[in-house]
Amino acid sequence: MKKYGLIVLVFTVFFSLMSMTVLAETDAERLNRLEMEIKGIKALKPSTAEDVWAKYNMRIYGRVKVDLNYDTAEFKNYNDFIGVVKEDAPNDSVNFNPRDTRFGLEASHTDGNWTGKGRFEIDFYGTNVGNNLIPRMRLGYIDLANNSSGTSLRVGQDWIPVAQQNPATIDFGVLSAAGNLWWRVPQVTLRQKLGDVELLLSAMKHRRIGTEEEERMPWVLGRVAYNFGDGNIIALGGGYQSNEYGQTCKDIDRSLAALELKLNLGPVLLKAEGFWGEALDKDFLRYEMGINNSDPNNPKEIEAMGGFISLTANATDDLTVSAGYGIDDPKNDDMKTMKGNLNDRQFTRNDMAFVNSWYKVTKGVKVGAEVMYVNTERIMYVNSERCNKTDEGMRYTMSMFYNF
User: Fold this and answer.
1) Tell me, what's the pLDDT at 46?
2) Region label for 340, one of left (φ > 0), alpha (ψ between -120 and 50) or beta (otherwise)
3) pLDDT value at residue 10
4) Which DSSP helix (H) or strand (E) runs through 54?
5) For residues 140 and 156, is the Cβ–Cβ distance under 8 A?
6) Which residues of the chain carry a pLDDT beneath 70?
7) Contact at 8 Å (CB) between 276 and 257?
8) Tell me, what DSSP letter sits at residue 207?
9) Contact 257, 228 (CB under 8 A)
10) Are 36 and 90 in contact (CB under 8 A)?
11) What is the C-alpha separation between 248 and 392, in angstroms, rounded?
């Protein structure tokens, strides 16, 4: 015990002497000491994360979305969002789907007249094929814009640069194969703004899946858009691609023309789109709808036309109501030589109609409900005679959405 008491006494004397030393400081000495401490603090190097956030304009964003579906028929291609109704498949089912959950990062900076931006976004759709890796990359591009000339360049994976409008569906598919051409495709896109007019020139092509592919030419696309105030847009776009089909040594010429309209009509937003094209398939989410290969040695382009209209109204500050209709109508004469019944992806006409509503519960949370009707027509052969057959289905959806 005496030993511990001695230790306590020594520490007491030591801290008393230290206090006396500090108290003995003059004002000048104290000021000098504080200045040295401040310089030391300033000399500390910030962390890498702090350095990045200070150097660039950073934005982290995302959403969590869960859809609860009841389907009155079997929808094919795709499981979690609607493409077409499978032939003779009236079985009903329920699906709980959280895959439309997204996360994104955006960084930008300005240097003189130039602004650079990088953007990256993922979700949980797709498979480990082609451009899709789960979690798959939805967007991944670099922007370089000259602020004085109105010229900008985008390189990377983004939404297709023509037919840019999308209907206001809760369903992830936004009227896939029913009048809406869309996809996200790697591209090099040049834009030039001239007052209210924007000119666009682009080359786009899906990532190569295998080195054995012989597809050499990307889609070459152009678009002219006129903005006539309050977000109102009318645009005309189109494109062309030509490549050899398989091992046939025959060139397939693909072409597209698309008209877009976006109008703010007071409390109502109208979006509409119409298209005509030949051999439109994987680049516009119309897989297996571009080529008639019933004769493997003489494949032919399938002509198609279609479009959609979508209306969204702000019923109250917290409630929106939307409705719309879309149709994809390939030319039947271009498909009549296809042998047997068409497969699950293929059709001679596909219609969709929808009505939905979103209600904002809090700043970040909203709940929604949607009813969607799908009508798919196919050609089939009965006793060697060609006839049309129709399959129908309904999807009822409840959705919850958190945005950040």
Assistant:
1) 55
2) left
3) 41
4) helix 48-55
5) yes
6) 1-25, 27, 37, 39-52, 128-133, 339-341, 384
7) yes
8) P
9) no
10) no
11) 37
